[in-house]
Design brief:
By secondary structure, this protein is of the alpha/beta class. The chain has 19 helices and 19 strands. A seven-stranded mixed beta sheet has the order 14-15-16-11-10-17-18. A five-stranded parallel beta sheet has the order 7-6-5-8-9, sandwiched between helices. Strands 3-4-19 form a three-stranded antiparallel beta sheet, with no helix packed on it. The longest helix has 27 residues, at 144-170. The radius of gyration is 25 Å and the shape is globular.
């Protein structure tokens, strides 16, 4: 049985083919331009997108899906801008029942039809990327350019990457096969076999506050492409970006002749714990989650009926041994620590530096001089409020503020956090990063995650000691990124061996425009699934292959 190509598959076949090539070559490629320039998107795109975003504020979000008649409004913008968007509420049983009813026709449509529809959804989202970026900005606290890139273009790239992997895995085996086996002197045994891609069932995506689209899109589109209806449960403080996503997904599904309840939004009332109710629902068979280690561990332990994919927290670490570009190293690390106020799951926290100092192109630098150089780079980036806030954005929640207060009671500050008045948003909550000196013996402090604009310059006995700390802390608590600076190839090799042992991605000697806390779709894996910070990787074959099963039928010829 040969699958009949779907019109939407044909429309986007070239994009899919290029994405399939990209995931095998692992070089640079992007389907969605990351520059919000009018030369790329047109003169009116930015204004049109902002107007579309503003039209949602203070009103009922336009979403026609099963519900209980109630609405919820839980978002508070880190920029202090009133949002007050009201979303239709539904009970877990309503959502799961509607999704389950939509599954059979979606399953039977086949991989090409499903992938074609997914690619059309991505195209529709891209056409409305400024609307999406504004929603990401004002719910996450990211500055606009970062929200456009990470929350818009890069999120779409990650979604396309997941779709490409899903298509590759679903089409790895033929749809039909002839089977013949000799049977002595009689006629051979002949059978015709058919292999069906069968989805697991209803999928649940639990969104996060900081990167509501970037972290949700891979799971959403991996599940949808492989035949699973998706219930999207956004973080209560960042509903709008995923509501917009669901809105356009439902439009495309309906236009293509499918039940729009294949994608539903599940906003929750304050304190409702809807994510947990859905995660344990017997009808939910896949769960994707990005967020705290505590809740990720709970999902892994308790959502036993589902395949659970988690990306949690960790101790991102940089080992500093030596450098032939001290100024470049400090600038690079300073940018890493400043970007989005360190509110990224990939931002470095622990900077391991020999207490005897390091060799550089500027001569020997003491431990204090290395720490001061990195702190100075942060201070320079944040000195001018108007420019600094375009890097730092705003503080996403009170938990970050509480940790900033708590860290003042430990170690010795190299750079203290400051309160900054945002030039455009007077009610925005903005804090600059802090850098604190610790000793390697202060394990009780640096062996926990301090999510936010907090990093530690940690004095170690030697580079070998630093690598031992990386192995032990990442092995026990996990990490999504690691970095090393050294002019010694033997040290670089030792760091790579330590990273392999700890199961963490390593970046070496970053001094230019590539930063340890950024990853590129189609080339870099995000998370490895090889340490406690995540049980999966965005995106690889393992991330999609367990979202469906092959069920065969066979008949005598």
């Amino acid at each position: 049985m040969t699958e009949t190509p779907h019109p939407l598959y044909d429309r986007h076949a070239e994009t899919l083919d290029r994405a399939l090539t990209a995931i095998t070559e692992r070089g640079y490629w992007s389907a969605y331009p990351e520059s919000p320039s009018p030369r790329v998107y047109g003169e009116t795109a930015a204004a049109d997108g902002k107007a579309a975003f503003e039209a949602y504020l203070g009103g009922d979000f336009p979403l026609d899906q099963p519900g209980d008649g109630a609405t919820v409004a839980t978002e508070v913008s880190p920029f202090g801008v009133p949002l007050d968007v009201r979303y239709p509420h539904a009970e877990a049983d309503q959502l799961v029942a509607a999704a389950t009813a939509a599954l059979p026709a979606w399953r039977d449509a086949g991989p090409q039809a499903r992938v074609g529809v997914c690619l059309e959804i991505l195209d529709r989202l891209h056409k409305n990327v400024f609307e999406l970026a504004n929603a990401v900005q004002f719910t996450s606290g990211q500055a606009f350019v970062m929200a456009f890139q990470a929350g818009g273009a890069h999120a779409l790239d990650r979604a396309l990457e997941a779709v490409a992997y899903a298509y590759a895995e679903m089409t790895r085996h033929p749809g039909t096969a002839g089977w013949e086996k000799a049977a002595g002197k009689g006629d051979p045994l002949r059978m015709s076999k058919t292999f069906h891609v069968v989805p697991r069932g209803v999928a649940l995506v639990i969104g996060c506050n900081t990167f509501p689209t970037w972290n949700s899109y891979p799971g959403l589109f991996a599940s949808l492409a492989t035949g699973n209806p998706v219930v999207v449960k956004p973080h209560p403080r960042a509903v709008l970006p995923l509501a917009i996503t669901v809105k356009y997904a439902r439009q495309v599904l309906a236009e293509a002749g499918f039940d729009p309840n294949l994608v539903q939004l599940a906003p929750e009332a304050a304190g409702e714990k809807l994510a947990s109710t859905l995660a344990l629902h017997p009808g939910v068979r896949i769960v994707d989650f990005t967020g705290s280690t505590e809740y990720g561990d709970w999902l892994e332990a308790n959502a036993r009926q589902a395949a659970v994919y988690t990306e949690k927290a960790g101790l991102n670490t940089v080992v500093i041994d030596s450098t032939d570009d001290f100024a470049g190293m400090c600038r690079n690390l300073g940018f890493t620590l400043t970007l989005y106020s360190g509110q990224m799951c990939t931002t470095s926290q622990n900077l391991l530096i020999p207490r005897g100092g390091i060799e550089t192109d500027q001569g020997h630098k003491s431990f204090d001089e290395v720490a001061a150089g990195i702190a100075g780079a942060v201070a320079k980036l944040t000195a001018d409020p108007a420019r600094g806030v375009e890097l730092t954005g705003a503080i996403v929640n009170d938990g970050v503020l509480e940790r900033l207060e708590e860290v003042t009671k430990v170690g010795e500050p190299v750079l203290e956090s400051r309160t900054v008045a945002h030039p455009s948003f007077p009610d925005a909550v903005v804090r600059t990063p802090t850098v604190v000196k610790l000793d390697a013996t202060d394990t009780g402090i640096y062996s926990r995650e301090w999510f936010g604009p907090i990093s530690f310059a940690i004095a170690t006995d030697s580079t070998a000691h630093s690598l031992a700390i990386l192995r032990s802390t990442v092995g026990e608590k996990g990490a999504l990124t690691a970095g090393v600076y050294s002019t010694d190839e033997a040290v670089l090799d030792a760091a790579e061996a330590a990273a392999i042992d700890a199961g963490v991605h390593l970046s070496c000697n970053l001094t230019g425009g590539v930063f340890v806390n950024q990853s590129a779709a189609f080339s870099d894996f995000h998370g490895s699934g090889a340490n406690p910070a995540a049980n999966s990787a965005l995106t690889d074959g393992a991330y999609v292959a367990n979202r469906f099963r092959i069920v065969q039928s066979r008949r005598h010829v």
